[in-house]
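Problem 12. The chain below contains 470 residues. Write out its predicted structure in token notation.
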Amino acid sequence: MSHHQSADSTTHHLLPSAVGVEKSVLGLLLSRNPLSTYTPLVTAGIGVDAFTRPAHKVIWEEIVAAITTPIPHDCISITQSLASRLDELGGAHYLTEMVLDAGLITQLPRYIEQLREVMTRRDIIATATAILSMERAKTPTALLLEEMGERVSKIPPLVVEQAHRITFMQAMEQALAQIESGEATRADILSGIEGLDEVVKMQAGNLVVIGGAAKGGKTSLVLSILRDAVTTQEKNCLMVSLEMSPVEIATRLLSMESKIPSSWLNPKIMTTGEYSRLATASMTLGRASGRLEVVSDLFAADQITAFIKASHKRNPLDLVVIDYVQLIDTEQAKNSTRQESVAGVSRALKRLAAELGIVIIALSQLNDNGELRESRSLGMDANIVLKIIVDKASQEREILVEMQRSGSSNVFAPCEYIAELTLFKSRDENSPPMSEKSGGGFAKKMMARMTPSDLGELLGELPPESPPPQ
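Solution.
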């Protein structure tokens, strides 16, 4: 049997295929430098027999013919060379679909794995079919065994060296280069809170878990981070909220940006100065709106994962926020527990962050013992775990860096929490930490007595023109 031979026509309809993966691989070859995609494919043993559709075989052979000639080719010249055969290939729109559905070059190892799996299954089915035909023809058992052994030995193993693997020496060279450039300690996403950024470095591929009690400030902290990411750092962000609508989130962000408490955003009591600040805030967030997408109609784990991948494909993301994990619906096996389901979500988010090279921040509720609710896997899978600690007397908040794999753990990150704005910000130099404030409720009482002028001065903004509403 030839390598990856095709079965005869009587069994062809039974053979498995991976049409979607075939299209993605060809799309990568047509949309990027063909040679950089072709080389790992050939190294992994992918050839024309990996493709089941005749049109896919033609496209593959045209690409190979172009790449293996001395004349330089790129995706444009290859596409042009196929122009005369578009009718038999499904039309120009079919090639366009391939390019649009190609996915990311980082997904190529996974595509190779899937193609090899399907190729091996086809070989197994073809071998079994041939042996059955020989058995029906009353072939002696000894000959059957000999033929079976010979055919099975020609089926290549599935385990191959992935194209993205590197030697240890290469890894060490890259590590030294990152250390020399400072990249190893550089954060890809900043929180905008100086005390937190000094302790925590959120880097691409990280899963960050923020835990807190109900109404403890989880969403406030993540919105503070999100606001700084889209406006100051100009990062592309996606927020999947299972608790708040996009309008509610927009209102919270407008309140933070304008420094006007949400309860004051009322046309009956707002002054001209407050309207001006709100207009300025809306323009700031409006300029950043193309970098922020907010959805609140996804609840199933697989839907959320698929949407994140699709969004990243359309416009590469830097940060994804999920609020919050315990509200995600999962398909539970008959005898599985909720803890096991949440653990599955945790693993999926961890893999997704690594696969897409983004930071994923997942919010989680805490149980009565102050631990991440429903699954310890959240903390075990995460690169960084933050917990919001609330002083029961004063209702002030502090951020505890409970764990991080590449940095200090069990340390507090200095910050200020402005309750009226549900905003976390950098702590003023003269402001003592929560644990050192006498009376516990001092800050709360002071905030309650503050005028808008005081609040504006605290935040470094111009004071509004009217006293707070009664």
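Discussion. The radius of gyration is 29 Å. Students who got a different answer should revisit the alignment rule from Section 12.3.
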